[in-house]
């Protein structure tokens, strides 16, 4: 009997603690529908045409490789305004600074990596975002991989929805920012 209780303490208890059930009870539960912070912003990308310095907010640093018909290799660096409504001339509540490049041969897909920079009375800080923008899909999810300031250590998802695309020089994306880790 004594042997059994030793066995219980030394072997079974550690086994029980390490069981998936025990681990699951320590895991933080994240509900997709209940972000800890959420806001919708409109992102405006006005590509530089060569003579619109006043209005342009982004510029192609490379105009594509000619590989396929979907701008493969084209890379754009942007300093784009984010507004609460759809108007390009509304006062920006944040800036999106970063780049995207087209990286799919068979359709339009851009890979985004950028920082949302907030410097207003409402928020001060940054959110860093990256992911694929599969433009054929009505909704695309990109990852919020981290944050600083008012968004210290935040993580989450940004859902992109094309709001308007006017030729090759202007598009607007609705960005639904949902954070699931807030500190
Ligand atoms: C900026 O855009 C506005 C509205 O589209 C236009 O009236 C103005 O001429 C543009 N300015 C420049 C410098 O392109
Ligand atoms: C970039 O390529 C497109 C065609 O893909 C062309 O219409 C446009 O004029 C080019 N822009 C520059 C700055 O060369
Ligand atoms: C943030 O805004 C303040 C007040 O308008 C300004 O003094 C400061 O330079 C801004 N900081 C950045 C990083 O833009």
TrEMBL record:
<protein>
    <submittedName>
        <fullName>Uncharacterized protein</fullName>
    </submittedName>
</protein>
